[in-house]
Amino acid sequence: MPDSKDFDFDVLTEDWNLYKLEDDTILKVKLVLLRVIQEGVDKFGNPKGGTLITMIVSPVPPSELRKLKKVDSIIDMKYETIKEGWNEYEVSDGFTLKLKPIISQIDRTEKFDPRGEPLYGVNVQATIKRTPKKV
After folding, report:
1. Considering the domain boundaries, does residue 10 fall inside one?
2. CB neighbours of 76 closer than 8 A, spacing ≥ 6?
3. What is the pLDDT of residue 27?
4. How far apart are the first and last CA of the chain?
5. Do 23 and 77 contact (CB within 8 A), yes or no?
6. Which residues pair with 104 in a beta bridge?
7. Residue 135 within any structural domain of the chain
8. How many CB atoms are located within 10 Å of the residue 126 CB?
9. Is the residue at 48 inside a domain?
10. How far apart are CA 83 and CA 100, in angstroms?
11. Which domain does 118 fall in, by range?
């Protein structure tokens, strides 16, 4: 197993992405970079490694959805983007990393949390750009 190295990084931007679901719920999504790891270099001298990212997903449903109490099936939700952007990190290896969520599916489940708010299943992937730091 090759030696690995963790790099420090500074957060330049780390904002919420907002989506409006067809049931008027506002879905808040944030990607957070936790670690940047290098495990050697490829044949071209580019660093090999990876990132550790966590995703925070928080639905904010309208009050009338708390009154439903029971739903018989899962609903595939349509949505529109309200605000979507790149989170940006300056990494000590001389590069900048940008992260952006890509949502492929949102389902409103038949379950509710203890407050009576509907629970959603959200399939989110991270898109990552790596570019040299601007001098």
Report:
1. yes
2. 105, 106, 107
3. 98
4. 34
5. yes
6. none
7. no
8. 15
9. yes
10. 11
11. 5-130
* CB-CB contact of 125 with 119 (8 Å): no
Q: CA of 114: how far to CAs of 47, 60, 109, 111, 118, in Å?
A: 46, 14, 14, 10, 10
> What is the DSSP code string of the chain?
----EEE-EEEEE---EEEEETTSPEEEEEEEEEEEEEEEE-TTS-EEEEEEEEEEEEEE--GGGGG----SS-EE--EEEEE---EEEEETTSEEEEEEEEEEEEEEEEEE-TTSPEEEEEEEEEEEEEEEPP-
Assigned domain for 93 exists: yes
All residues at 6 or more sequence positions from 95 whose CB lies less than 8 Å from its CB, including other chains: 130, 131, 132, 133
Domain count within the chain: 1
Task: Provide the residue-wise pLDDT of the chain in tens; the chain has 135 residues.
Answer: 557 888 999 999 999 999 999 999 999 999 999 999 887 777 887 767 788 999 999 999 998 888 776 777 899 999 999 999 999 999 998 889 999 999 999 999 999 888 889 999 999 999 999 888 776
